[in-house]
Amino acid sequence: MRLGSSIPLAVGTVILAGSPALADRDVNGSGNGNGWDPGVVLEGTSEQGPVDVVAGGDQTQSTGAAAAATYEYEWVLTCFNNYPGVLNEMCPSARNCDAQGQYQWTLWARQVTSANGQPVHATWQPVLTECYTGPPPAPQAAPQPQVTDALVLQAVRRLGLPRLTVQVQPSDETLVNFDTIFYAKPPSWARTVQLLGFTVDVDATPTGYDWRFGDGETATTQTAGAPYPAKDITHAYTDAGVRVQPRVDTAYEIRYRVDRGSWQTIAETVPAAGLPVDLRIREATPVLVGD
């Protein structure tokens, strides 16, 4: 790493028994395509055995007798392109600390072996961020893993939430200055995923809708509307002879439970952009008709 400062040019890797814990704080760093997939969560056993760390150069090895998964850790400066073992250079975001002279580091981890000693080929995952005046200390015994809101949201974004297609009446084309009806069909979404060795049930429920009518006008509702004869959500276009692409974006409320425990609701909603449809705006022309 090139720092241009008094910070040492190398931060060693540490291998410890036990599972890593994700901090509640958001990790500001981001992957650079060199193997980090933010959607692949770090999975492993919840067993926690005693740790006997023997230092040796830039690495330490766990020699604990109890069966436990092992993980390796590496501190990397919190920068967009930095990644363990690939790049560890200074950037402006690494100076995003409260105290002057401190640098922000991200602790990364990946599983090395399973509890029975079998090799595991896992990807690096960010664990937490900290600010230090000098180089960060070597991580000690890994604490018991915890499923956090941030980890569940990461899994939800990886899986993807339903993108709604707006329903329009009349469909395909409508008239200028006419109350065109809009509505959507709310989906049900539930998944069960494995996170850090835990079984996590996740539900997503639509709680808000942002209607984008394609002419610059928008509306926000808590309901999805309904087809004719209901007129819960309508919009009148003022320009004729144009084509627009209305859509409806959805905000989902996420709740989850760990190992069939109590349900927890995440305060942050997750947006999902809707799929636009083509709609032509026409002008009605009066025609005189005889008997």
**Largest sheet: spatial strand order:** 2-3-1-4-5-6
Count up the helices.
Answer: 1
Count of beta strands: 18
Instruction: Let me know the largest β-sheet.
Output: 6 strands, mixed
Q: How many structural domains can be distinguished in the coordinates?
A: 2
What ranges have pLDDT less than 50 throughout 5 or more consecutive residues? Answer: 1-10, 19-66
- Share of helix, binned: under 10%
In round numbers, the mean pLDDT is 76
- Helix/strand order, N-terminal first: EEEEEEHEEEEEEEEEEEE
* Rg, nearest Å: 26 Å
Give the overall form.
Answer: elongated
Report the portion of residues in β strands.
35-45%
Distance, first to last CA: 89 Å
Structural class estimated from helices and strands = mainly beta
Summarize the structure.
This protein has 291 residues and is mainly beta. 4% of the residues lie in helices and 35% in strands.
Structure description:
The structure is a single chain. With 291 residues, this protein is mainly beta. The protein contains 1 helix and 18 strands. It starts with 12 loop residues before the first strand and ends in a 9-residue tail after the last strand. The model is unreliable at 1-10 and 19-66 (pLDDT under 50).
Please outline the helices and strands.
Blueprint: E1 13-17, E2 53-56, E3 59-62, E4 70-77, E5 103-113, E6 125-132, H1 149-159, E7 167-169, E8 173-175, E9 180-183, E10 189-195, E11 198-212, E12 218-221, E13 234-235, E14 242-244, E15 247-258, E16 264-265, E17 270-272, E18 279-282
Parallel strand pairs: 1-3, 8-18
Antiparallel strand pairs: 1-4, 2-3, 4-5, 5-6, 7-9, 9-13, 10-11, 11-12, 11-15, 14-18, 15-16, 15-17
